[in-house]
Design goal:
Layout lengths: L13 E7 H4 L5 E4 L14 H4 L7 E6 L6 E8 L4 E8 L1 E2 L11 H7 L6 E4 L9 E4 L5 E6 L4 E7 L16 E5 L8 E6 L4 E6 L4 E6 L6 E6 L30 E6 L5 E6 L3 E6 L5 E6 L8 E2 L15 H4 L11 E5 L5 E7 L4 E9 L5 E11 L7 E10 L8 E10 L2 E8 L12 H4 L3 E3 L10 H7 L10 H8 L7 H18 L16 H8 L17 H26 L2 E7 L3 E6 L2 E7 L2 H9 L5 H9 L15 H20 L2 H15 L7 H13 L5 H12 L4 H13 L17 E4 L1 H34 L10 H22 L18 H6 L22 H7 L6 E3 L4 H16 L12 H12 L3 H8 L6 H14 L4 H12 L28 H14 L3 H18 L5 H13 L3 H10 L3 H17 L4 H5 L6 H14 L8 H12 L2 H19 L6 H20 L7 E5 L21 H13 L6 E5 H17 L17 H10 L3 H11 L4 H16 L6 H8 L2 H4 L5 H16 L5 H13 ...
Parallel strand pairs: 2-7
Antiparallel strand pairs: 1-31, 3-4, 4-5, 5-7, 6-32, 8-9, 9-10, 10-11, 12-13, 13-14, 14-15, 16-17, 17-18, 18-19, 20-24, 21-22, 22-23, 23-24, 25-26, 26-27, 27-28, 29-30, 30-31, 32-33, 34-35
Helix pairs in contact: 8-9, 8-10, 12-13, 13-16, 13-17, 13-18, 15-18, 17-19, 18-19, 18-21, 18-22, 23-24, 23-25, 24-25, 25-26, 27-28, 28-29, 29-30, 29-31, 30-31, 31-33, 33-34, 34-35, 35-36, 36-38, 38-39, 38-40, 39-40, 41-44, 41-45, 42-44, 45-47, 46-47, 47-48, 48-50
Length: 1486
């Protein structure tokens, strides 16, 4: 085949870059329903090839806007013909310098954004070839015809036409019924101009439909099937009648039509191979001729007569000459440079394109057709022509243009694009050989996957030792980026699942079919092969693993076959779009292909393939060097080209000698070898690899063949270096000027362009890897084979460079095979590491210039496409250069920006490699970064990136691995002068301020670990940074000290943290860190450490800190700083301060209780503990110092909500003295309350009693929710509940009157004395449950009186207050009952008058007389005057009682008692008189 451009002698080879539309368009689409007054037709079953996806196009066309050369409209008829999808497609995004005055820059920018497709739903199926035109006002107009015979006119205004949001509210369509199509089947629509179209029906009829200017109606003109009787100046071409009858369509059906805008004629081709000329004004068929043979005469005359179709039976052979009824691209009318018209006609028998010039008469009618050229497409006789066009095309990469014929062919679903120059249409003479210009250039097609068959996978699975049936290999194939779209895999899964349902029992289907999966990958892994089970041998019971693997492989092959079928359907060609601006597009059902200049390595691969002809290789070798200098400069020297083909033939022979497993093993071994620094000379490494892998497969015949061919090399070293330079160049197009670097502008790549570039890059890198692998294999042979010595000069250098290139291409192949995509957002420059810059570089939504893609909502599908979307890597595409050259130029720019391809002589991790690895880390691909770093012999730069990547992964082992990597990276700074290692690449990724300082490096690493809360590593590297700072004399190390200290705190290393604290040389930082240490220790329950550490020089600050924490902290929170401070004071022997702090806590808790908050019981418990601790602490202090002072607001009489004041501790004597003096002088105005130990104990008792009372929840609302009750209420509560002992002790402690308690006790004793049964528990329990009374003998009543006696002994005073209460209450409730002997005895002994008076009060006269007699009789003999005083007044009162005054005694009993009393008094008086005389006499005689 010939490979040359028609406009120049420059040699260029082309291949196809393919983009699936799903990968470069937004996920959603906008849908509009076309307004209609007709009823929608029923939807029949869709064709099989459309069942898989509504998105596959039946027909597709392009419309290139003449006013905006940066974008075009893509039209696709989808959804089984019921929807028309329109998209604004561009290869660039953003401002364009090529927009003309009729298209504003803003409108251009809007249309070049990645906007969602817009789908217009029609009521019935659309007929192919919707017509597009641009109106004078810049609006886009579309004509569409449905199979119901309705013509729709759509018009769109605004900057984005059909993407305008206002479309919902505007009128944008008109519907017209084409009357001529009534009852007919429409088959075609062809545009004439913005108001006229031609429509055709299956029966052979055709009409010119013209829409009026107001879009209110249409005019129809019938195109008549036969010519008129006009005079003819030219003889007939032929009188053959090739018509034949057809049951479905007429032989006269119009299948192709061409016209020129604003012309008065149309030329069409019918099924019976008639070429007809119509007048568009009248509809008359002016002329009709038979289609010419491929080798027709130079002049074609129009026929003067045209007989009507014969209705007789035609010879069977003639029926074979009928053209298919589907629309076909047979004719095109071209308007040349000087407005001359040309007709290009395709003749299928010979695959020829015949070019005619059209001669017009004065009226504008066709006068004559003159054949001026013919292009025969050799080798396409078995192919089907899909589409063709002739345009003035800019394909050479510069400003030169030439008329070019483009043709799209299809065979077996594979598309093939060819183009050839048509210099006959040029208005001026063109330079160059006409024969060369008329040679066809074949564009290499993209693979549809037919080679991915069972044999292909057999080769891949030959060395597969896994027991999963090749699952890993198949998954790697399926999810190779860009190979299968998500829609393709979804369809394959759906078909596969249906087949599983059909082949399996519904009651025993695999569980995997019922699972929910998170991703397509998970679904594929889970479903494919799920029906295969591991069987066991019926004889041995051993698992049949081989059978299992075979069945699993068959399932994978079945799934991949379905996916391949879907992929091939998506890539089926349906149209060709070519524009004079240099754009050619192959339209497929769900994809697009763009011819581009071929990579030199792909060119060599294509020429050495088995399918390449010897003629093609010979032709290439014979090309003059000048024809290759601009495109393929490395292949320009003729001698190098000849040597290269010899080398490539040797590579092919060696590759064929190796089995696929051996080849892959050799590949992996070489890659593994170069990942670490070579331990031997490169030649020794090569010999070792040859002997281990290649040598056993090279026999004598192959060795002789290789050596013989290598000896034929003219200059082996130059040729090998030529191949090496092809492999290591990042310039796809040799001449950079071809990319339009000096053109009229460029724009950043659009989403479509990114997908195309990703496909180009993938193909290029895969091809380069395969070539360098073959070249490496050949060099191993040359190094290791005995007879190959001396064949290549500089072999060691070439081998080393090739080994390095093999390593580079291996890492790049890994890059293009990754599915993960970079995260969106701005990538931070490497120097932005300080806090201010980090905050300044935060990504803000709407920062379009720095977004991953501000214009697009398209998600990248691979690492490569994601890199193309990053601002720093997104290449620009020139507007002034043809697309076949601008895309490769953009790819060259991308490869240059990413530094993916380098010319290395040694396997090292260069600065560019380190930068790329760093980029992977910065865009959030830490796992991929680790894998990428693993490809290289890790120097200091790679080790640093490796450390960052480990941190980014967040794995459990990341801290240890990252720390090890950072320590290794520090080796670049362990120089004599502490400078960065320039060769390691670390200099380009570390911030500039780190250069020359190991301490700053460790500081930066410490920051990295702090960001991820990896404290153990922070301790390590902060310590290293401090050591290095000391060595380098860096004084400002406060942050490092704090980092180290905080990390130790977080790790619970409190002892180490204390050592660090004491070593901090900054006083302010030391105090701050001490506060952190105190908090951490207390919060972790290790407050005992505070008592162990000395805190030399920090004791006062520590006490102040603890006091502040205690005063400011919630006493209920944990840790309790009151307790911490208490423990600290106790450990230091400061018991008074300890008591003060605990008393303060008790008072604060009391204030909290006053607010009646939940948790009163817990509060009271804590308050009790506080007062008890305070009392215990003050008990250890001398009595005169056992007191504390509190502010007035903290006193018991202060308002609950008043402002709290801090308790003073360690009060200076002078302050105490002044406070006490003020308190004594003016107690009412004093602000200080002196609280003694007794006061604290009293408060403790009060709180304790209330706490005990809170256990009873059924008395007056006093319970767990209300501890803060009055003291008297508390005592009463105990008494009511029968807890008399608690009531008495509480009343005694709180100085509450106990009369009521003793009254109740008396009532209980009296009740028990009367009866011990049937009494309430409150009467019985206080005795029955008493620990003290439990051991006594006697009745319950006797125990009760005895227990009452004990209580009185404990709590009654010397005035017998409560004994009197008991006495009186006993008499009140049991007036005639016997009084307890112990009670009477007590009164007789201590206050008999009170006893007698009480008896009189309660009218117990008998007892009064009895007690009076007992008093008189028990009175001692007076030893001195008035030594014994008796209650004579009471005696007189008893003696003065008259019988009528009382009913307690009868008259006789009263008299008797009075007589006894009188006698006793008389006797007592006599005794007293004698005693008085004796005393007097003794004193007188003295």
């Amino acid at each position: 085949m010939a490979l040359s451009l028609p406009t120049s002698q420059r040699y260029t080879s082309f291949n196809t870059a393919t983009a699936f539309l799903e990968l470069c368009t937004t996920q959603g689409f906008v849908e509009h329903t076309v307004p209609t007054e007709t009823l929608a037709s029923d939807t029949p079953e869709r064709p099989p090839f459309l069942a898989q996806s509504d998105d596959h196009a039946l027909h597709s066309t392009t419309f290139f806007n003449p006013n905006d050369r940066s974008s075009f409209v893509l039209s696709r008829i989808i959804d089984d013909g019921y929807a028309l999808e329109l998209s604004n497609v561009s290869y660039t995004a953003g401002p364009s310098s090529s927009a003309t005055a009729t298209s504003s820059a803003k409108g251009h920018q809007q249309r070049t954004r990645t906007l969602p497709p817009v789908r217009f739903s029609f009521p019935s199926r659309l007929i192919p070839n919707p017509a597009f035109s641009i109106l004078d006002n810049g609006d886009l107009q579309v004509h569409a015809l449905t199979d119901e015979g309705y013509l729709y006119v759509l018009w769109f205004s605004g900057q984005t036409w059909f993407n305008e949001p206002a479309l919902e509210d505007e009128v944008w369509s008109a519907e017209f019924k084409v009357e001529g199509l009534e009852g007919k089947v429409p088959v075609g629509l062809w545009a004439v101009d913005e108001r006229r179209v031609v429509v055709a029906a299956e029966d052979g009829s055709a009409f010119v439909v013209q829409v009026d200017d107001q879009l209110r109606g249409i005019d129809e003109t019938t195109l008549k099937p036969s010519s008129s009787s006009f005079p003819f100046r030219l003889p007939s071409f032929s009188t053959r009648n090739l018509s034949t009858l057809s049951s479905n369509s007429s032989p006269t059906q119009l299948i192709s039509l061409a016209t020129s805008p604003h012309s008065s004629f149309a030329i069409g081709v019918t099924r019976d191979r008639k070429l007809k000329l119509w007048s568009l004004e009248t509809g008359h068929c002016l002329k009709s001729i038979d289609l010419p043979k491929p080798t027709s005469a130079q002049q074609l005359a129009l026929s003067s007569t045209d007989s009507p179709p014969s209705t007789s039976k035609v010879n069977q052979s003639h029926s074979l000459l009928l053209l298919p009824p589907t629309l076909q691209p047979i004719i095109k009318v071209i308007r040349g440079d000087d407005d001359s018209l040309y007709l290009v006609l395709f003749s299928s028998p010979g695959s020829s394109f015949v070019i005619y010039s059209i001669s017009l008469d004065a009226s504008g009618s066709v006068n004559e057709l003159n054949q001026i050229g013919e292009r025969i497409s050799v080798g396409t006789s078995t192919k089907s022509l899909v589409d063709f066009d002739v345009v003035k095309f800019t394909s050479a990469g510069n400003d030169s243009t030439a008329w070019t014929l483009w043709a799209l062919w299809e065979e077996g679903g594979t598309s093939e694009v060819r183009f050839v120059g048509v210099p006959e249409l040029n208005s001026e003479e063109t330079e160059g050989d006409d024969e060369v210009q008329q040679q066809w250039t074949i564009v290499e097609s993209a693979s549809i996957g037919s080679e991915w068959n069972a044999g292909y996978f057999d080769d891949l699975l030959q060395d597969d030792e896994s027991n999963d049936g090749g699952s890993e290999v198949c998954l790697e194939h399926i999810f190779y980026p860009g190979r299968y779209t998500p829609a393709t895999l979804e369809y394959a899964l759906e078909v596969y699942t249906i087949s599983l349902e059909e082949l399996t029992d519904p009651t025993n289907r695999p569980e995997e079919m019922n699972y929910e999966y998170d991703s397509i990958r998970d679904r594929v892994i889970g479903l494919v092969g799920c029906s295969v089970v591991l069987e066991e041998s019926v004889t041995t019971g051993a698992p049949l693993q081989a059978l299992y693997n075979k069945k699993r492989k068959e399932e994978w092959m079945r799934f991949i076959a379905i996916a391949n079928e879907s992929r091939a359907a998506a890539m089926f060609p349906v149209g060709l779009g070519v524009d004079g601006r240099g754009e050619a597009v192959v339209l497929m059902r769900a994809a697009m292909g763009v011819p581009v200049v071929q990579d030199p390595v792909l060119l060599l691969q294509r020429l050495t393939n088995a399918t390449s002809t010897l003629v093609a290789r010979t032709t290439f070798q014979a090309l003059p060097p000048a024809s290759l200098e601009s495109t393929y400069p490395h292949l320009a020297p003729r001698a190098i080209r000849q040597d290269i083909f010899i080398i490539l033939s040797c590579i092919t022979a060696l590759s064929n000698a190796l089995s696929p497993p051996t080849s892959r093993k050799l590949e992996s071994t070489i890659l593994e070898t170069v990942r670490t620094p070579l331990s031997a000379h490169v030649s020794a490494v090569a010999i070792g690899l040859y002997e281990d892998f290649l040598g056993p497969h090279v026999d004598e015949v192959l060795s002789a063949f290789l050596i013989t061919n290598l000896k034929e090399l003219g200059n082996a070293e130059s040729s090998l270096r030529g191949i090496w330079e092809c492999l290591t160049t990042d310039q796809i197009v040799g001449d950079p000027s071809l990319g339009g670097a000096s053109g009229t502008g460029s724009g950043k790549a659009s989403e479509l362009a990114k997908v195309l570039l990703a496909d180009l890059a993938t193909c290029s890198i895969e091809a380069r890897f395969n070539l360098v692998k073959g070249l490496m294999t050949l060099l191993l042979f040359i190094n290791g084979e005995d007879g190959a010595e001396g064949l290549v000069e500089g072999l060691d250098s070439i081998t080393s460079g090739t080994l390095a290139t093999f390593h580079t291409m291996g890492s790049l192949r890994w890059v293009v095979r990754q599915e993960q995509v970079p995260r969106s957002g701005k990538v931070k420059p490497l120097s932005e590491y300080n806090l201010e810059e980090r905050l300044g570089s935060m990504h803000v939504a709407g920062d379009d210039e720095d977004d991953l893609d501000a214009d697009s909502k398209v998600t990248p599908f691979s690492l490569l496409s994601g890199l193309l979307s990053l601002p720093q890597f997104s290449p620009s595409i020139p507007h002034s250069t043809s697309l076949p050259h601008s895309l490769p130029t953009a790819l060259s720019k991308f490869l240059s920006l990413t530094k993916l391809i380098q010319q290395k002589r040694l396997v090292i991790d260069s600065e560019k490699d380190v930068e790329f690895a760093m980029m992977l880390q910065e865009v959030g691909l830490s796992e991929l970064c680790l894998e990428f770093v693993g490809f290289y012999p890790q120097g200091c730069g790679m080790e640093y990136v490796k450390g960052l990547a480990w941190l980014g992964t967040g794995r459990g082992e990341s801290e240890e691995e990252a720390g090890e990597a950072f320590r290794k990276a520090a080796g670049a700074l362990y120089e004599d002068i502490v400078r960065l290692d320039e060769e390691s690449g670390i200099s380009v990724i570390l911030p500039p301020n780190i250069a020359g300082s190991l301490a700053r490096y460790y500081y930066r690493v410490t920051e990295l670990f702090i960001e991820r809360n990896l404290d153990q590593a922070v301790v390590t590297f902060a310590s290293l940074a401090l050591e290095a700072s000391a060595e380098e004399g860096i004084e400002e190390t406060q942050e490092l000290w704090e980092m180290l200290f905080v990390a130790q705190i977080d790790l619970g290393m409190f002892e180490d943290a204390y050592v660090t604290l004491m070593g901090i040389p900054y006083p302010a930082a030391k105090i701050k860190c001490m506060a952190q240490l105190v908090s951490a220790v207390c919060e972790n329950g290790q407050t005992g450490l505070l008592t162990q550490w000395s805190f030399v020089g920090l004791q006062s600050q520590l006490q102040r800190l603890l006091s502040q924490r205690a005063n400011g902290a919630d006493p209920l929170a944990s840790p309790n700083y009151y307790k911490v401070l208490y423990a600290y004071y106790i450990s230091k022997g400061d018991y008074r301060s300890a008591g003060a702090i605990m008393f303060q806590q008790g008072r604060r808790i009391g204030k909290i209780q006053a607010h009646d908050l939940p948790g009163q019981f817990e509060l009271a418990t804590l308050q009790c503990q506080s007062y008890l601790a305070a009392a215990n602490a003050l008990s250890l202090v001398a009595k005169e110092h056992a007191w504390v002072t509190v502010g007035e607001e903290d006193s018991a009489t202060g308002e609950p909500d008043s402002k709290r004041r801090r308790i003073a501790y360690c009060i200076p004597d002078s302050v105490v003295r002044r406070s006490l003096e003020a308190a004594f002088k003016d107690p009412d105005t004093s602000h200080v309350e002196v609280v003694e130990l007794a006061d604290i104990r009293r408060e403790y008792a009060a709180v304790l009693s209330r706490l005990e009372l809170s256990e009873f929840d059924d008395y007056g609302g006093v319970g767990a929710g209300n501890i803060t009750v009055d003291a008297s209420v508390t005592v009463k509560g105990f008494s009511i509940r029968g807890a008399f002992e608690s009531a008495l002790s509480t009343a005694y402690a709180l100085d509450v009157d106990m009369s009521d308690i003793f009254e109740k006790l008396t009532e209980s004793c009296v009740a028990l004395s009367r009866s011990s049964t049937g009494l309430p528990s409150s009467v019985v329990d206080w005795v029955a449950l008493s620990d003290e009374a439990m051991s006594w003998e006697g009745t319950l009543a006797s125990k009760a009186w005895r227990l009452l006696e004990r209580y009185l002994e404990r709590y009654d005073d010397e005035n017998l207050k409560y004994r009197l209460v008991v006495l009186e209450h006993t008499l009140a409730v049991n007036g005639r009952g016997k009084l307890p002997t112990w009670l009477v005895s007590t009164f007789l002994a201590q206050d008999s008058q009170l006893l007698i008076r009480t008896m009189l009060k309660f009218d117990r006269l008998a007892d009064a007389f009895t007690f009076s007699l007992a008093v008189i009789q028990s009175s001692p003999k007076p030893s001195a005057p008035a030594a014994c005083i008796l209650p004579y007044s009471l005696f007189d009162q008893l003696l003065a009682i008259l019988p009528d005054d009382t009913s307690a005694l009868s008259s006789e009993a009263l008299k008797s008692r009075q007589a006894d009393l009188s006698e006793a008094l008389r006797q007592r008086l006599a005794v007293v008189e004698r005693a008085d005389r004796a005393i007097f006499a003794k004193s007188t005689w003295g």
